Amino acid sequence: MSGRPAVAVTGMGVRCAAGATPAALWESLITRRPAISPHAFDDEGTVVGPASVMTGFDPTGYLSPKEVRRADRSAQLAVCAAMDAVEDAGGLQVPPGRRAVITGTAYGGLVSQENGIGHPDVLYVPRLMNNAGAYWVGARLGITGPSLTVSTACAAGTHAVGEAMQMIRSGCADVVVAGGHESPLTPTTALAFGRSGAMATDFDESGAASRPFDAARHGFVLAEGAGFLVIERLDLARARGARIHATLTGYGRNSDAHHLTAPHPDGEGARACMEQALADAGTTARAVTHVDAHGTGTELNDLAEARAIAALFGPGAVPVTAPKSVIGHALGAAGALEAVITVLSVREGLAPPTASLTQLDPRCDIDVVTTEPRKISNGPVISNSFAFGGHNACVVFDSSHD
């Protein structure tokens, strides 16, 4: 632990249906206002289901009209969220070569890919490639240091944030713009997830379609969005008088090696990943004040994660929140959006409630926050992402210790 530079979060930016700013997103969470509605995934309206869609999105002022034509919607969301995060941080106050960018995405330019099948234009490849978001963010922000993209399904955004911390600790960057982006609302994607049984395809009340840990859950709700953090050395941030939202103290990543899409039923990999993150942060499960759960609303994920949390922290021993009840599941962007939410929880001292949970699954022996936000004390907060492929990632945030 000694000798490693401490790492601060100095900037945040988001784009999602629940809010185009961290403040708006936080308000949606605190008031349990799901950003979920019926959505026609195809022009004919033959593929319809609950989704979390960012309506009215406009990248004007962030990208020129020519750049918009060259960038998939997913990358456009990334640029807007990343540039907002940098503005929130007061700029990137280090030389370009000491700056880095890490993005996470599951699918890259999925809208462009689906629209171009059978008749690709000259920009087809650069629009759909997974690392396009990293290019656009790096180019707009003058980043000439490392530029990486992580694609580990629904853990990609959390992996990006954790790897950013490791990059600073290793000394190869002083500030990293890190996050995730995804725009997967295409008919093929909806049909594929719907037929797999993982996605909620029908619900009497669309706003309540995403119900993590609820006995009546029907699966996850597909969402689009982007979330980015500016992560920098704590000493440099303090030296320039930056506002420090939180510190990033721990990171765990492992794999289940169990099944292509299903988590280990006992949550062994998830528990080990949380333990690794807490050990990296130099803290213990007993000190944790809040858990931001992956909480997809699928039976296999909910049960495995609940078992892991109960085994590590004790049954009902720590307050748990599932933000996907409000924001839906943005796949590779999910962990990054929830990293922003976790930073806000640390900063505000509140665990936001889980929306739409009316009857806790009795097999989930955890304390899920419902109805009202819950005050939490200063201390470490952990955010979980457990993905298809058995990819697990957890990050730990704490107060700035000023």
Describe the structure.
The protein is of the alpha/beta class and 402 residues long. Helices cover 33% and strands 21% of the residues. The protein is built from 13 helices and 16 strands. It has an eleven-stranded mixed beta sheet with strand order 5-4-6-8-1-9-16-15-10-11-13, sandwiched between helices. Strand 10, helix 11 and strand 11 form a beta-alpha-beta unit. The longest helix is centred in the N-terminal third of the chain and has 17 residues. The protein starts with 6 loop residues before the first strand and ends with a strand. The mean pLDDT is 95.
Annotate the secondary structure layout.
Blueprint: E1 7-16, H1 22-30, E2 37-40, E3 48-52, H2 65-70, H3 73-89, E4 99-104, H4 110-116, H5 124-128, H6 132-141, E5 147-150, H7 156-170, E6 175-182, H8 187-196, E7 222-223, E8 225-233, H9 234-239, E9 246-255, H10 268-281, E10 290-292, H11 299-313, E11 319-321, H12 324-327, H13 334-348, E12 350-351, E13 367-368, E14 374-375, E15 381-386, E16 391-398
Parallel strand pairs: 3-7, 4-5, 4-6, 10-11, 10-15, 11-13
Antiparallel strand pairs: 1-8, 1-9, 2-3, 6-8, 9-16, 12-14, 15-16
Helix pairs in contact: 3-6, 7-13, 10-11
Features:
16 strands, 3-stranded mixed sheet, alpha/beta, 402 residues, 13 helices
Short description:
The chain has about 400 residues and is of the alpha/beta class. The protein has helices at about 20-30, 65-70, 75-90, 110-115, 125-130, 130-140, 155-170, 185-195, 235-240, 270-280, 300-315, 325, 335-350, and strands at about 5-15, 35-40, 50, 100-105, 145-150, 175-180, 220-225, 225-235, 245-255, 290, 320, 350, 365-370, 375, 380-385, 390-400. It is about 35% helix and about 20% strand.
